[in-house]
Write a structure and sequence with these properties.
The protein has about 400 residues and is of the alpha+beta class. The chain has two domains: about 300 residues, 2-Layer Sandwich (Alpha-Beta Plaits), CATH 3.30.70; about 80 residues, no CATH class. Helix content is about 45%, strand content about 15%. It has 15 helices and ten strands. The strands form three sheets. Strands 2-3-1-6 form a four-stranded antiparallel β-sheet, with helices on both faces. Strands 8-9-7-10 form a four-stranded antiparallel β-sheet, sandwiched between helices. The longest helix has 28 residues.
């Protein structure tokens, strides 16, 4: 069966109730599909109207009635509000065999007598009727297309508005005057994407306890050049930090191998010689972990190409955002991280430690620039895919 592209839209209510991580965990782990793009939107009235117009297309009366509810829901909840605020939605694009039906099955039908939690809407959606059979409350949780033709139409539509209505939504949320509002970068690292699993969503779910707002999201593959720049400040730290350890190890090895005794001055010289070499090798391994190639192994003409390793880049905004995210993340070494932190829950080693978060507002600006958090890689993906398919 040929591969397809399909999508899921996380509704404003699900985002506001911090359900994004749980939804993403189920979408990835239960479908086995690859998430290939993600973009935050604050939809304009024009996009909302055009999208709503595509929703009702099922000839079966019961399904058509549900689609009509979804159409009304989109018109009421996706567009700009009185006062100028614009709700945030998250568009996630998935690729794989039978992607449309697989996602549809995982999302589930909103009118379902069972409430077992089997589907996303079982858990995150609501459909309540009054005594006369009229719908008194309706929340779909997420939206997904019913068929391949709808998926294609909708993806092309959202891609066409992805520059004007999507990206870094740093004006979508209002804060009290004088509040210490910060933006910070989070990377869900490549170790979470080795196979389809719930870890990426689980990491996002733990970050939700900060009460901060996701205002940007993209699937990103770091180039070697980007990884070198991103982790550039780490190189000097590693080279200096490993001087002592390198000298100690080298001294013991030489004393054992040559049956001689070396002084502390020799150990210092060995550290000065080997520390920078050891530090650079460790740094190159970090670059390889994030981009797929060590700088020393990467041909010059490939340094700017997207790497083989995938991460999800998120921008969080809110009061004291940097500190709040770092506290939930935990220290670099997972073995030293407190219970309940992301690195304790999901980390393995100092390098393979689940996520990165900026350590200052200034570094957040630098790092967001390197990973190009505002970059629209959704639009070229959609245009290229449907030009070929």
């Amino acid at each position: 069966m040929a591969e397809e592209l399909s999508y899921v839209i996380v509704t404003p209510y699900s985002i506001r109730k911090a359900r994004t991580g749980g939804i993403i965990a189920r979408l990835i782990s239960r479908t086995g599909l690859e998430v290939v793009a993600a973009r935050m939107f604050a939809p304009s009235a024009e996009l909302v109207e055009k999208y709503a117009a595509t929703i009702v297309n099922d000839p079966e009366p019961r399904h058509r009635a549900t689609q009509e509810l979804i159409r009304k829901y989109v018109l009421a909840n996706f567009g700009p509000r009185a006062g100028g605020t614009r709700p945030r939605v998250l568009l996630l694009v998935f690729k794989g065999e039978n992607a449309v039906n697989t996602l549809r099955s995982t999302v589930g039908h909103i009118v379902n007598e069972r409430t077992s939690g089997e589907t996303i809407r079982d858990t995150y959606g609501d459909y309540l009727e009054d005594g006369n059979g009229n719908v008194s409350y309706f929340e779909p949780g997420v939206l997904a297309p019913p068929d391949a033709a709808s998926a294609a139409t909708d993806l092309k539509l959202w891609a066409s508005y992805s520059d004007s209505d999507g990206g870094l939504l740093d004006t979508a949320v209002t804060f009290p005057a004088g509040a210490n509002v910060e933006k910070t970068l989070v990377l869900i690292k490549p170790d979470n994407f080795r196979f389809p699993n719930a870890r990426p969503g689980g990491v996002i779910d733990l970050f939700s306890r900060t009460g901060l707002y996701i205002i940007a999201c993209k699937v990103h593959r770091m180039s070697v050049a980007q990884a070198e720049e991103f982790y550039g400040p780490v190189l000097d730290v590693l080279q200096d930090k490993l001087r002592g350890r390198s000298g100690e190890i080298a001294r013991k090895a030489l004393e054992q191998e040559l049956s001689i005794t070396l002084g502390d001055d020799v150990q210092t010289k060995l550290g000065d010689l080997l520390g920078p070499i050891n530090g650079r090798e460790n740094w190159e391994q970090i670059v390889k972990f994030m981009a797929g190639l060590k700088p020393s192994d990467c041909p010059a003409d490939r340094r700017q190409e997207p790497g083989s390793e995938k991460c999800i880049a998120l921008c969080y905004q809110g009061i004291d955002a940097v500190r709040k995210i770092r506290e939930v993340l935990g220290p670099t070494d997972p073995s030293k991280a407190p219970p309940g932190t992301i690195r304790r829950e999901f980390g393995q080693t100092i390098m393979v430690n689940a996520a990165h978060a900026s350590d200052s507002a200034e570094n957040a600006v630098r790092e967001m620039g390197i990973v190009q958090i505002s970059e629209n890689n959704l639009k070229p993906l959609i245009e290229s895919w449907f030009a070929k398919n």
